[in-house]
Amino acid sequence: MSIQSEDQILAVIDAFFPRRHPSLLLGRGDDCAEFASASPLALSTDLSLDDVHFRSSYFSPEEIGHKVLAVNLSDLAAAGAVPLGFSLGFICPRDLPLAALEGLFRGMAALAAAHDIPLSGGDITVGDKLGFSITVWGGAARDHSGRVVPFLRRGAVEGDVIFFLSQVEGAAASRPASGLGLARLGLEVLEKGGRAALRDCPAACAALLKPRPQLAAGWRFALLAAAFQDDHKLALPPLKVMDVSDGLRRDLPRLLDGYRRLEAVAKARHGQQPGRQHIPLGADLDFPAAALHPEVLRAWRVREDGAGLAPALEGGDEYGLLCACVPGLLPALVAEAEREAGQPASLLVLGRVSAAPGIRWRGKDIGDMLPGDGFDHFSR
């Protein structure tokens, strides 16, 4: 049975998402929802389209619903924000089966309930492909004094430690392997073999199909960084964070470049010439290849000399946290990651920020290992 009307879709939404929630003054049913905010809000929007961001040919409806919300929540994690709610723009094909519609919202609602966030409303339209536009908002983290803690990606300096925080489905508590490259492998094996790939590469498939946004870690990291900044009277934030959606190859330069680029743009807007303000930093990576997940090591025959490592540096859809911090803060962050409840998180130290432009792994230029700039929608 396929979808017959917009009201039918709304009825399914109402079956999975309550209209009332403590964070909403007025929920779905009016032209606008209303919510109270006692602090600045973090806001993020992501688009997800069939055959671009996911494939309904091998994603289950529940996995699609989970993922399209999870990628937004990952942005809130990178902002150190506590999620408060979301709105949904939904493109529904005419031939979408009712059972698939229910599965989509079942998966989305389960993730929303896990983080206690309401669906405030949105819009529905018919289209040729299944698609979503989701906007999430969250409250900025506050320290013990009630001060709002800014949590940004810009501001890396020479000597900062670069690390990647991920969470791997089914990881062993004794040695949680890094999720770096795992979603890229999931994409590769699912594209080749469909859902049969779940048998041989369950962790890689789970990383792609049901990413785990690092919300608790992001919020706690923000508080630890704020306390460290106060204790050491630092002028710049000691921790810089972004979520990895386009792969380390493309996102690491963004982490290294964000502060100086912003400075140059600000000068240009005020009628000043940016001049030499934009001075890109670089990175020297030295993490051991053996720290990657066994499925990655096996599938790409990764060796300690870096052979087979390139796909892990290129892959997107990671949705872990890529961070740069002053060395003195790292022990507290590692301890916090190890205290996380549920599945163990893996904090992999990748290397250090360098004054020399470019990115190198154990002295090898990453451009030689992996030509190009990483994933870009318009380069396909």
What sequence of helices (H) and strands (E) makes up the elements?
HEEEHEHEEEHHHHEHEHHEHEEEH
Strand content: 15-25%
What share of residues is helical? 25-40%
Radius of gyration computed on alpha carbons: 21 Å
Integer average pLDDT: 85
Main pleated sheet: 7 strands, mixed
Count of helical stretches: 12
Would you identify the CATH architecture of the largest domain?
A: Alpha-Beta Complex
Q: Give the CATH class of the largest domain.
A: Alpha Beta
Considering the chains and any ligands shown, give keywords for the structure.
380 residues, alpha+beta, 60s Ribosomal Protein L30, Chain: A
Outline the secondary-structure elements.
Elements lengths: L5 H11 L7 E3 L7 E2 L5 E9 L11 H18 L3 E11 L5 H17 L4 E8 L4 E9 L21 E7 L14 H12 L3 H4 L1 H8 L5 H18 L6 E5 L4 H22 L12 E4 L8 H7 L9 H5 L6 E5 L4 H10 L5 E10 L3 E4 L2 E2 H4 L11
Helix pairs in contact: 1-3, 2-3, 2-7, 4-6, 7-11
Report what the structure shows.
This protein has 380 residues and is α+β, with helices and mostly antiparallel strands. It has twelve helices and 13 strands. It has two domains: 6-139, 60s Ribosomal Protein L30, Chain: A, CATH 3.30.1330.10; 161-372, PurM-like C-terminal domain (Phosphoribosyl-aminoimidazole Synthetase, Chain A, domain 2, Alpha-Beta Complex). The protein has a seven-stranded mixed beta sheet, with helices on both faces. Helix 3 (98-114) links the parallel strand 4 (82-92) and strand 5 (119-126). Helix 2 (61-78) runs parallel beside helix 7 (215-232). The chain is globular, with a radius of gyration of 21 Å. It starts with 5 loop residues before the first helix and ends in an 11-residue tail after the last helix.
